[in-house]
Amino acid sequence: MWNTLTGGQLRLLTESDINSVHQATLEILGEIGIKVKSAKARKIFAANGAIVDQDKEIVKISKAMLEKAVESAPSKVILYGQEERYDLVLEKGRTHLGTGGTVLYALDLDTGEKRETNTQDVRDIGRMVDYLDNVAFYVVNTYPKNVPDEDADINRFYWALTNCRKHVMGGMYTMKGLKDSIAIAEQIAGGEDKLRERPFVSFITLMVSPLVMDGTYTDFLIEVVNKGLPLAIPSEPLSGATSPVTLAGTIVLNNAESLAGIILAQLINPGTPVLYGSTSSIMDLKKGYYVGGAIESAMVNAGLAQMAQYYQIPMYGTGGMSDSKTNDVQAGYESALTGMTVALSGCNYIHDAVGLLEMCQVFSYEKMVADSEIIGNIFRVMKGIEVSDETLAVDRLKEVGPAGNFLADIHTMKHFKNEFFFPEVSDRNTRIAWEESGSQDTAARTHAMVSEILAEHKPNLVSAELRSKLRKKYPGIKGEDLSGS
Questions:
Q1: DSSP track, 295-315
Q2: What is the pTM of this model?
Q3: Which of 2, 51, 303, 423 makes an SS bond possible with 379, Cβ 3.0 to 4.6 Å?
Q4: Phi/psi at 252 (nearest 5 deg)?
Q5: Helix (H, G, I), strand (E, B), or coil: what is residue 170?
Q6: Which CATH superfamily does the domain covering 70-383 fall into?
């Protein structure tokens, strides 16, 4: 698994640009302010010296308050797996890619038709994330429509945590659901203190553009921070709709909004592990709606990665999506281009990078496998070219000489596994060999791979006894537990 590589090779903003964004951010926070709809949050801001207009719900934040929060926010955040080998160290430009979004539909594996998502999808995508080496984490990315809304949270986190050893993150919909999901995680960890020591679960508390802290989301933020658990604080400005149409304007708005949430978290509990965040994209002004696969979306996230590095706070960003309705050429090139752009910027935790189609509304199992291969290729680029006496191989060139070959050379045997990425989805056979093996296209190959994974990979993460106990305590959990090995 090549998910510990360092990005930062791509720099879209100059040092002067970064300073300009920072200065504009200070002006926005100090002069315009943030509309904070949570009374609890306004009280916290006021108690710490912010200018608060309670009637208008506007909070203005000083440069000193921002600087203090940036200083107390950790520059290194570890998002733990249920097993140590899946721990993610987020610092500097270390880059990891995984799932994300919250879709309501999936392409059915049997029929290929678009259908509503359910608890089985939450479970099975967790199993897929657990299996695929290049997918580093599971941001729970489907909303189960086969349970009442009030039971969505516990179903999302129960099925994720019992089927995926990698780090699990997700957004929340109710305060009760948040508290119950944390309680489930604590029981799986072996207690509240155990979960705080190695938090293998974290949460997302979204800001609302332009310049709003929603009451419900902000109260979620306060609850998570008080529990001492990590959280991502993204903003989602839509260039040309909820933010200025210019990419720089969207970057500065996102920067101000995410920092406002980070400031609140640090006021509540200095040192709280937070991720500076973005789910920014653009509006297609010809069509009048959100798009996810636009290269400008990736550029905004790449620019924001530089801002996060300026503040030395790890970043949660987005890339690897497609607006195509099916797994076609468009799905491939949009996912590859946006994923590569954001990864090379050094964004630490790139969600939405696996399985998303149709403006992030539809999930595809087959695309998930293809995206894992795209990520593998991205990591190979990030790994770069090692130049040394050994890799320049002049001594081997001297020995092999003109008109020789290196096919059986000891140098080839020593280095080929580290030098080349070996795909599992792509077909590199001759046409004759491809035809003899059934002439399968990419769609057929990925479908076969998904079917095999789901038939065989059944991780047994939580004892049957604990699963039974949890399901008795939370009868709203619906679906079939799999017996694994």
A1: HHHHHHHHHHHHHHHHHT--E
A2: 0.96
A3: 2
A4: -70, -35
A5: strand
A6: Trimethylamine methyltransferase-like (3.20.20.480)
